[in-house]
Amino acid sequence: MPRPPQDRGSGIPGPQAKRLLDGAPLLAVVGPTASGKTSLAVGLAEALDGELVGCDALQVYRRFDIATAKPTAEERARVPYHLVDELDPAEDFTLARFIERAEELLVAIRGRGAQPILVGGTGMYLRGLLRGIVPAPDIDPALRRRLAAMHERRGDRAMHRWLSRVDPDSAERIGPGDRQRVGRALEWWVASGSRWSERLDTQGTWGATGERYRCLKLGLDAAVEWLAPRIEQRVERFFADGLVEEVQGLLAAGVSPECNAFQAIGYREVAEALRGGGSMDEVIDRVKIHTRQYAKRQRTWFRKEPGIVWLDARAAPESLLASGLDVWTKFVRQSAI
Fold first, then answer.
1. Given 1.10.20.140, 3.40.50.1010, 3.20.20.70, 2.40.50.100, which CATH number is that of 141-197?
2. CB burial of residue 171 (10 Å; 0-12, 13-18, 19+)
3. Residue 265 and which of 25, 89, 143, 289 are 20 to 30 A apart at CA?
4. In terms of pTM, does the model score above 0.70?
5. pLDDT tens-digit series, residues 72-88
6. Where are the domains of the chain?
């Protein structure tokens, strides 16, 4: 029988969390969109008496359900799954807020005697949790307004080209249409004179990887030619499942199209089409293109991350789960030495 979801965490701050998490290692499942992360993570959680913690910048928002590819009701009934449907669309889910919330959950899960398992495709969140982050500078509101006005005048492509010149690593990871993150990276560069991509602190306190917590990172290796048709099918399923109607309902309920959640691929394109016209066939094609581009950025990010053990995403689910459990058993055994 699956255990029901428990309380939402203890509120224990970072340093104390570090001490309480010094026991058994953490487990994380990462990879590009549509690679099968959730299915593998649910299987691992069932086998290891685990609880899942979402490492996703968008699944945390309520009412944005279809194109964020949230875990299904059946999957959430099988194992406790945290950091899904926690925030209202207008709220910010910054990297710092994710780290604070995730540490609360990890400590609470460990306190219940369960195995914490992180799962998601937002690589910066996982890296920030494991390595820590450099504190952000205070951004002058006047500077933020000037850059926002510049964004309106020049457009997404021009601002992204600027980011490519001053911080090419961030530009590679952030798409031109992600106005909020492009703006944040440019704000950081203008305010501090340093690159947003260098914000993550590599001077950690644990082991050769510089990570604060011991963590086995399982990555799903998905070749482009295998992943592309899965992305096509997934996007078509989003629209068949009512993505347009979901967006119409959100707009009718007064959710601002400028909020963070509306920057998710699928929502942004549909909202723009509803405001400005255009055929849904064209919208579907754009969403497919943007999703493939996003998957490419995710693959690039995770390929640069040290310590990931790669599994073949094309394997049968039972074989994939067995491989993951085998790697985990060896990792725990080595960690105990």
1. 1.10.20.140
2. buried
3. 143
4. yes
5. 999 999 999 999 999 99
6. 14-133+200-335, 141-197
**Beta strand pairing status for 308-312 and 215-221?**
parallel
User: Which of 192, 179, 88, 96 is CA-nearest to residue 139?
Assistant: 192
**Burial (0-12, 13-18, 19+ Cβ within 10 Å), 269:** buried
Structure tokens at 303: 């390929």
Distance of alpha carbon 335 from alpha carbon 337, whole angstroms: 6
> Which single residue is written with the structure tokens 């998490």?
21
CATH number of 14-133+200-335: 3.40.50.300
Q: What's the distance, Cα to Cα, between the start and end of the chain in Å?
A: 33
* DSSP reduced 3-state for 277: coil
